[in-house]
């Protein structure tokens, strides 16, 4: 309808194609009892694909799109239609959006809400036409200067109230469009210096805000999951949602660990000093895994570069943890990725996503084969086999005491000797699959 992608035919699975096609991603291929499309649940990020103009900290716009700068409703509507034309080319199962991405801000909260609803009218029509669903919606509470000192953690209560109204409007639209999740990313929920920060108050305010969102979710009957996306830094010096462990501790403190799950991004995991698979494994162990953003950082840069995934071994280890935990339920694989500033053409946006789909498909299949062959899990079980002994289990039971365990260790004459962890052999084993 926008005309921008008219020259590009919808992509199909064709391993031998010379042009734009999926070479590994076959949506109907069965992987561990599900269609590949249902295992991966791909989503396109509206903001990077249709809102980002190609700027970086040292240079301005490089992309020329007919809907830029999308500062009127007419341009925003053109952009919305262009996005769905793209989803149709890509056969994308889902998309994700922020309110700020899809409509220009109005002169008042009410006008901004009405504009969002007007764009949602287009989304609703085009979703029915294309079959593309909404993986999640969210509110942008970090770009406008009013959020420079935070959103829910802002020292000004008027900002807290403004954010509550904004999130309510976004959650209403997400619910209306049958979104499967709602995400809160605290881009500026943190601080630059403790010299002007009441850290305890800000955490309490953020905890109360999240509780209000959860209460409203139940009030309106929204069945999707509420997700928090961890990130350690950037734009603030220290963000309260640093990593999976930090967010889980926050949720426990405010009694929300059974209400809120996590949207985990590969690039954010690296910024926190972790591997992606570590964050996924920990979220599954703690029962808070929800969804992922599949993008990567440049390992030579110390900031969030949001590049499309291209490393099959890394992706395979991520999907290994996801599949081991039971796979996605309401979550999916969102490409929170953006083109490089020199990739100017419509075909570049299609090629980037098609290649990312293929990388993830290869990683998924490798992960599934590793799980089905059971060699990694067998090695893990063997390493911990001693804990199956009755005396070992007894140490973990409620009646066990430190002095009792100490006495038994002495009576047994224990002198444990180290056993090889066989790391290199396991790494070699993984490389046979990827």
Automatic annotation (TrEMBL):
The keyword Transport does not apply. SUPFAM superfamilies: Xylose isomerase-like (SSF51658). Mg(2+) 1 binds at residues 229, 265, 293, 336. The keyword Magnesium applies. Its cofactor is Mg(2+). Homotetramer. Binds 2 magnesium ions per subunit. It catalyses: alpha-D-xylose = alpha-D-xylulofuranose. Its EC number is 5.3.1.5. It is an enzyme of class 5 (isomerase). Belongs to the xylose isomerase family. One of its GO terms (biological process) is D-xylose metabolic process. GO terms for cellular component: cytoplasm. Transmembrane segments: none annotated. It is found in: Cytoplasm. Keywords: Carbohydrate metabolism, Cytoplasm, Isomerase, Magnesium, Metal-binding, Xylose metabolism. Mg(2+) 2 binds at residues 265, 268, 304, 306. The active site is at residues 98, 101. It comes from Amaricoccus macauensis. This is Xylose isomerase.
């Amino acid at each position: 309808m926008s005309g921008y992608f008219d020259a590009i035919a919808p992509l199909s699975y064709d391993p031998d194609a010379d042009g734009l096609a999926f070479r590994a991603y076959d949506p109907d291929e069965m992987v561990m009892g599900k269609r590949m499309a249902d295992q991966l649940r791909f989503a396109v990020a509206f903001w990077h694909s249709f809102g980002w103009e190609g700027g970086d900290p040292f240079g301005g716009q490089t992309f020329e799109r007919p809907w830029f700068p999308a500062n009127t409703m007419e341009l925003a509507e053109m952009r919305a239609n262009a996005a769905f034309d793209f989803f149709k080319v890509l056969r994308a199962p889902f998309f994700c959006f922020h309110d700020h991405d899809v409509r220009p801000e109005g002169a008042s909260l009410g006008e901004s809400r009405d504009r969002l609803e007007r764009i949602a009218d287009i989304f609703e029509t085009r979703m029915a036409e294309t079959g593309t669903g909404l993986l999640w919606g969210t509110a942008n509470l970090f770009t406008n200067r009013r959020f420079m000192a935070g959103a829910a953690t802002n020292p000004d209560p008027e900002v807290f109230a403004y954010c509550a109204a904004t999130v309510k409007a976004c959650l209403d639209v997400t619910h209306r469009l049958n979104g499967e999740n709602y995400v809160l990313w605290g881009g500026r929920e943190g601080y630059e210096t403790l010299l002007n920060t009441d850290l305890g108050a800000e955490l309490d305010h953020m905890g109360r805000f999240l509780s209000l969102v959860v209460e409203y979710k139940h009030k309106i009957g929204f069945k999707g999951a509420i997700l928090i996306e961890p990130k350690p830094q950037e734009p603030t010096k220290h963000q309260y949602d640093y990593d999976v462990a930090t967010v889980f501790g926050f949720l426990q403190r405010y009694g929300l660990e059974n209400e809120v799950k996590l949207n985990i991004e590969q690039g954010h995991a690296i910024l926190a000093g972790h591997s992606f698979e570590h964050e996924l494994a920990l979220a599954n162990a703690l029962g808070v895994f929800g969804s992922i953003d599949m993008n990567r950082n440049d390992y030579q840069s110390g900031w969030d570069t949001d590049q499309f995934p291209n490393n099959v071994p890394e992706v395979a280890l991520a999907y290994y943890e996801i599949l081991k935990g039971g796979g996605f339920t309401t979550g999916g694989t969102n490409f929170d990725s953006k083109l490089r500033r020199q990739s100017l053409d419509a075909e570049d946006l299609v090629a980037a996503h098609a290649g990312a789909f293929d990388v993830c498909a290869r990683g998924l299949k490798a992960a599934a084969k590793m799980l089905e062959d059971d060699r990694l899990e067998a090695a893990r079980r063997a390493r911990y086999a001693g804990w199956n002994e009755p005396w070992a289990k007894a140490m973990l039971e409620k009646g066990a005491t430190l002095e009792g365990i100490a006495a038994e260790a002495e009576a047994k004459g224990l002198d444990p000797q180290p056993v090889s962890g066989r790391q290199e052999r396991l790494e070699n084993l993984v490389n046979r699959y990827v």
